[in-house]
Amino acid sequence: MPTLKFAVLAGDYIGPEVMTEALRVFEHVAKQEGLTLAYTKADVGGAGIDNHGKALPDSTLKICAESDAILFGSVGGPKWEKLPPKEQPERAALLPLRKHFTLFANIRPGLLYRELTDASPIKTERIPDGIDIVCIRELTGGLYFGLPKETTTLPNGDVQSVDTMIYRKSEIERITATAIATARSRKKKLCSVDKANVLETSVLWRKTVTEYVAKHAPEIELSHMYVDNAAMQLVRSPNQFDVFVTENMFGDILSDEMAVICGSLGMLSSASLGATKNSLGLPFGLFEPAGGTAPDIAGKGIANPCAQILSVALMLRFSFGLEKVATRIEAAVKKAVTSGTRTGDIAFGGKSVGTKAMADAIIANL
Ligand code: IPM
Ligand code: MG
């Protein structure tokens, strides 16, 4: 029986709630498919701070390094907001984790099922068939990591903060390669999003993407768009995009926009892949919902577990090469949510069935 070795980092607030259900769904599928799940749970984020004094404990890092993939929940929340910014769970756990494993390629599928178009803030007549696009976000460069990153008091007493945006050609080339691979598996259309009318890094970005695609994937139809226009086009007519690729900060913002036009942040999963291969020779990756810890609804049993469950599907696809099993989970989620099963997620406006019942409905469709 194939054994799947992965680390489970549930994190804070709704993180553990949706993780419990995702693992229950996963165990069910594993049994059907004859797969053995060998996972190790570890603390991260606020849980890391509370139990180990550190948002990303060394023991957690070790467990991740010994695994073939990381299934991640979400971190942070009001309990740790008083800590100095650099010690807060998001900055002290998630970002170092991405950097440590060089998880430079963040793949976020924006999918709105035709049956749920009423859940989107976009008028149904503009998206009669729903939405199906993919955001490829560079994840280990740009403003998030560039140095200097600091706050200083100037001689005149004024206070100054600086974040630094740096991109190297090699970093742009490798994320372009991911975007090309994704575009090839779909409509062979790629839109690169930048701010080349203002930013030096964007000028390099546009030049590098253009040259790389011309050289390595001339069959891909490449277009370019400024990020402000892209933000507007995404709500005007989302399906004009098929795959878009962009730098870290722009991708962070556009992917939240993409999530809300797709009905709910609770449906958006993501894969962060790196340069390293796991013990199976497949990409080592971190798989997580794109949403946060939702402290306001934590403990109520109403958080939408779909994004976490869909993250399991992405892990099966990318880090374990089990495309068929991944597709089965995705189909079961689709069936469950389009046949009227809704969580308390307000974006869906439907009857609240709760986290556990949602997972039950998915299991019933497997
Ligand atoms: C995301 C999140 C993170 C990010 C936060 C939690 C640091 O918003 O994955 O999109 O900004 O990358
Ligand atoms: Mg974000």
Q: What's the gist of this structure?
A:
This protein is an alpha/beta fold.
Given helix and strand content, the structural type is alpha/beta
In whole angstroms, how far apart are the ends? Answer: 20 Å
Q: Nearest-angstrom radius of gyration?
A: 20 Å
Q: Which superfamily, in CATH terms, is the homologous superfamily of the largest domain? A: Isopropylmalate Dehydrogenase
Could you explain how this protein is built, in words?
By secondary structure, this protein is α/β, with parallel strands linked by helices. It has two domains: 1-103 and 270-366, Isopropylmalate Dehydrogenase (3-Layer(aba) Sandwich), CATH 3.40.718.10; 121-261, Isopropylmalate Dehydrogenase, CATH 3.40.718. The protein is 39% helix and 22% strand. The chain is built from eleven helices and twelve strands. The strands form two sheets. The protein has a ten-stranded mixed beta sheet, with helices on both faces. A two-stranded antiparallel sheet has the order 6-7. Helix 1 links the parallel strand 1 and strand 2 (36-41). The longest helix has 20 residues, at 14-33. The chain is globular and about 60 Å long. The two termini are 20 Å apart. The mean pLDDT is 94. The structure holds 3-isopropylmalic acid (IPM) and magnesium ion. Magnesium ion binds at residues 252, 256.
